[in-house]
Amino acid sequence: MPAPQRRARVGFVVVAATGALVLSACSGVKGGSGPAGQGAPAGGNTQPAAQGGAAGGSAGSGSAAPGSGASGASGAPQFDQNGFVVRGPAAKKGGTVTVLGSSPFSHLDPARGNDGNVNNFYNLIYRGLTTNKRGPGDVGTETVPDLATDLGKPNADATEWTFTLKDGIKYSDGTPIKAQDFKYGFERALDPKNNIGNDELQQLIVGADKYKGAYADPKGLDSITTPDDKTIVFKLNRPFPSFFELTGSGPLTPFPKGKVPSADYLDSNVYGSGPYQLKSNNPGVKVELERNPNWDPATDPTRPAYPDAFVFQFGIDGSALDQRMLAGQANDKNVIAASTDPLQPSSVGQIQNPQTRSRIVRDLPSCTYFMNIRTDVKPLDDVKVRQAIQYAVDKQALITAAGGPQMALVANDMLLPGVPEKEDFNLYPSENSAGDIAKAKQLLAEAGVGDGFELSMDVRGLPLWQGFANALQDSLGKVGIKVKQKPLDSSTYYDVIQTPAQQSPIQVTGWCSSWLNGYPLLSPLFDGTRITKTGNQNGSMLNDPAINKRFADIAKLTDADAQNAEYAKLDKEIMQLAPVVPMLWLTPLQTVGSNVGNVFACACTTGYIDYSSVGLIDPGA
What CATH number matches the domain at 367-586, 2.40.10.10, 3.40.50.1980, 3.40.50.300, 3.10.105.10? Predict the structure, then answer.
């Protein structure tokens, strides 16, 4: 069994309830990446105080205490030196946890959804071959078996991987989960209607990039075989020693053939394998979950499944949500603010009270917010124009839009802090990162567009994002670039901007990954061979032959350290082409009610509070 890879991560300090100090600065590597997402502290800048908690084991099952061996497992809450929660008090079984948010889930289908909030939700109702430990700090970066018995067995060159399933695993209707279900689940995920989410597996499994899905081609992929009901074998198109890091992603969720009659069936129906099942679904308004009677906690040591039920309510105004969460009155003591709804910048001034801070979790750093610049649209196809935009952006204005220095730091490149071999550099410097208007105007004049031009910009319909859009609009206006904002519905935002025929020339977006490696952080965004008509992650449409070759050459390396060093160099090479403007690494604040326990920011959910770990301190309250 291959051991989880370990990588250095930024350090953090936590203060337990007794006042003892605990330090951890080690991290594992987690598979999976996707759109933002909440942020990360910037490399080369002063680390904001306290980013996580003490290391520990995975959460227990059933009524067992979470975090076997973890600091805080006894129930004593932990706080960072600013008074924010690192790990909340212990939870008990029972009761209902309510999650309030402004935006509904993008998709109930795990093949389609790929934003941080919906992936967090999927952990409640779906399982994969592998998953990640639950816990604060570096705990959540370690991959562990889920429905499989181990992390898979590779052949000599890691181009073939074999997984064996656990005994006693079932769907919510009692049907046994078989190896063939993983093959079918992945093949249905490749249908053009479904293939709009995470595409990492599609890039690796032989023939998956050409396959049109199970509904069009029921024969399926020859590169995935099932010798028996308990065994599944994957053949890859290149060596990939950390393949087990990807086998818990949404497109590989198992489903039995014949139970999912159409490509869009799972967006209104849930055929789950996790600790909860769908009780009701009022799209855009409310989703209710209840316990899955066929979930066996003995097979699932990572999800404690404390609550009897979850209720997700949508459409709540962000400002109103903040006020409810900060007040924490009546039934709101059993409530969590959704992953997509951290405290708004305008509310940050209301959290000076230590009692209030003791109900606020600071998200872990695992996302970069940035602006895509389409390299295939005039005049943006001129690198000087794109470089001018880099100089024009006032990143201090973006810091202000995020809520101030305690909420964000400037990002100058696309590799998260903690990535091995990462170099700190800034190709487009300005005093205090406030922009260099003169340099920007000079480059625009050299490109023949000194008189300015107009652009439309896609922005997600969330207050934080619109604050970013306003700051970017002001910055570009100072150099003669008139920006017209195009606000889009939050729940369908990525569907639009990941469809090149629909996206604007520039887009405010973000990318998250707690798998600290250049492959998930750079390849989906900048490898031109991965551009697709739908589900396209390369929003800048960068298709540079030299960059594409660099990705291909790095993929052939079998030494992890050598790969890391090359990705660090490639990061700088990409930034020289200026296809994106890195903006910020964020550490947003997520609020919970006073009766919600076992809360922590988890790398397993790209830095959010992990829904599958929380419960109520007093289920009867």
Answer: 3.10.105.10
pLDDT tier for residue 99 given thresholds of 50, 70 and 90:
very high
CB environment 125-136: b (16+ within 10 A), e (fewer): bbbbbbbbbbbb
Non-local (6+) Cβ contacts of 598 within 8 A are 59, 66, 87, 88, 89, 90, 91, 304, 306, 613, 614, 615
The token duo for 256 is: 């039995």
Q: What angle do CA 450, 455, 457 make, to 5 degrees?
A: 140
Q: What is the pLDDT of residues 410-462, one digit of tens each?
A: 999 999 887 888 999 999 999 999 999 999 999 999 999 999 999 999 999 98
Mean pLDDT value across the chain: 86
Domain ranges (residues) in the chain: 367-586
Question: pLDDT class for 6, splitting at 50, 70, 90?
Answer: very low
Statement: the pTM of the whole predicted model exceeds 0.85: no
CA dihedral 482, 488, 494, 497 (to 10 degrees): -40
Find the DSSP H helices in 379-460: 383-392, 395-402, 437-446
Distances (CA, A) of 391 to 252, 430, 437, 492: 42, 7, 7, 31
The DSSP H or E segment spanning 567 is helix 560-577
Whole-number Å distance between alpha carbons of 454 and 477: 10
Sign, CA dihedral 525-530-536-539, equals positive
Place of tokens 């960059």: 547
Query: So what's the pLDDT on residue 64?
Result: 32
Strand ranges inside 538-597, DSSP E: 580-586, 589-591, 596-597
Give the total residue count for the chain.
621
Least-confidence region, from 1-10, 72-81, 148-157: 1-10
Determine contact, residues 66/73, Cβ cutoff 8 Å.
Answer: yes
Q: Which two tokens mark 213?
A: 């899905």
- Per-residue confidence band for 23, with pLDDT thresholds at 50, 70 and 90: very low
Question: How many CB atoms are located within 10 Å of the residue 145 CB?
Answer: 24
